[in-house]
Amino acid sequence: MTRVLTGTTQAIRLKGRSFLATVLSPELPLDEWFERFDVLASRSAGYFLKRPVMLDVTGIGMDRDSLLDLVSRLGERGIRIMGIEGASDGELGPDLPPAMSGGLPASDLDARTQEPASGPVPAQPAPSLMVTEPVRSGQTLISDGDITIIGSVASGAEVVAGGSVHVYGTLRGRVSAGSSGNASARIFCRKLEAELVAIAGFYQTSEDLEPRLHGQAVQLWLDGESILAERFN
Amino acid sequence: MGKVIVVTSGKGGVGKTTSTAAIGAALAQKGDKVVVVDFDVGLRNLDLVMGAERRVVYDLINVIQGEAKLAQALIRDKRLQSLYLLPASQTRDKDKLTPEGVEKVIASLKSAFDWIICDSPAGIERGATLAMRHADAAIVVTNPEVSSVRDSDRIIGLLDSKTVKAEAGERVEKHLLLNRYDPARAASGDMLNVDDVMEILSIPLLGVIPESANILRASNIGSPVTLCDSSSQTAQAYFNAARRLAGEAIPVTIPGEKRSFFGKFFGRKAA
To answer: Residue ranges of the Septum formation inhibitor MinC C-terminal domain (chain A) (predicted)?
Structure first.
């Protein structure tokens, strides 16, 4: 009997997600590069631990053996390479990390700013954004942390926060909390007239919001895949 | 130095040009030297509303391009000695309106006039952004309906970010002129009422202009309502708005209501 793979209940969810990785670009000769690297690593101990690290070997013409050697020497220093950029496909076998391409440049990381780690490094909370003016139609506010707005968010305005969003005024525009996937982010507002609310990528338009919530002081949060709301009394 | 005022709205047809003419004429009647500048290149109308359409020789674009001197392009009003018009071009490409050219023209107007009132085109494109670029204050003309209010909100956002003052970290004064207000329809809920609009836009109220047939007549005969029909309720509303613009504290009266809202509206601060 043939299995039918088109049933909707058997669908497999594939998701794209982008991450920020540290990219190491070794220079020749490798011995000298490793010397400099060890000096840097001793100054900022633990910097590379638990970080996704990529290797960029563009333009230094490495063959398969020298790549294997390079990866193992990095491995001795506790650095695991998640992907290699700039190597030709033939050079990378199953014993080497996969080839990567199409990365977008981000700002250079400065390892020296990192304090020498003593014990586990606590995650830095993203800074929160405080806005003391109304957010006007056509404006977009973006922050990795929480956003607090003392004033209203107009129809046609957009607020995107990595954390929670607090609106001490009427919320008429679009709000997205937990935009980088934080499902515990919430939306709070003094008067809900929003066009769209989203938490961690799950959204509801004003049409789907319960009419009894309209114009009320409300908090919204995510439970599984649905947005729940509660009035403040 | 003169004060540069932009009359703007985002949405078209809400009464920017009519209000520019009426407030310009009202200020000129107080004895101030006023120039009204049409920024609507290609769709100019201020000359018609001012009754100067048959006297246009040179325009703003000619001045910017160096084809005419500013003094040649300025048209003095026949009824008011201290009121001038700088018309827009009807035929030229609106890309000829350059930031440098506008800056120069505004600078020379500032040294010669008390008030430079810029009539912005609708929209948020080049003409509108250049009209507001050098403004010291803005009159945001809004009709009591949702699309006009949302567009006004958008324009207020631009006034706070794209003007020379905003870029220097200062603030452009913003004033709400609620136009075409019909008290009966606002009371019945067909129209937004003054409170609704104030709550959404949160800028101080300059005046409420009642919906009126006088305006249409005034436009058609080419005379600002504050000149041709100065005793009408509409003209009085514009006169009061002009006095508030000049800094006088006059209570705002809502058409159709006997009470004045002095405490209510002047107690509010712009957010």
So the answer is: 130-228
How much is the pLDDT for B267? 43
Asked whether residue B226 is assigned to any structural domain, the reply reads yes
Q: In chain B, helix, strand, coil percent, each to 5?
A: 45, 15, 40
Token pair recorded at residue B142: 């809004």
Phi and psi at B108, nearest 5°, equal -70, -35
pLDDT tens-digit map of B41-51: 999 999 999 99
Q: Is the pTM of this model over 0.90?
A: no
CA distance A151 to chain B (A): 8
- Beta-carbon contacts of B231 under 8 Å, excluding residues fewer than 6 positions away, are none
Domain definitions of chain A by residue range: 22-85, 129-231
* Residue A184 contacts B where some CB pair is shorter than 8 Å: no
Q: In the CATH scheme, what is the code of domain A129-231?
A: 2.160.20.70
The SS3 of residue A177 is strand
Specify burial of residue A30 (Cβ count, 10 A radius: 0-12, 13-18, 19+): middle
Alpha helices in B119-232 (DSSP H): 126-133, 146-159, 164-167, 183-188, 194-201, 213-221, 225-228
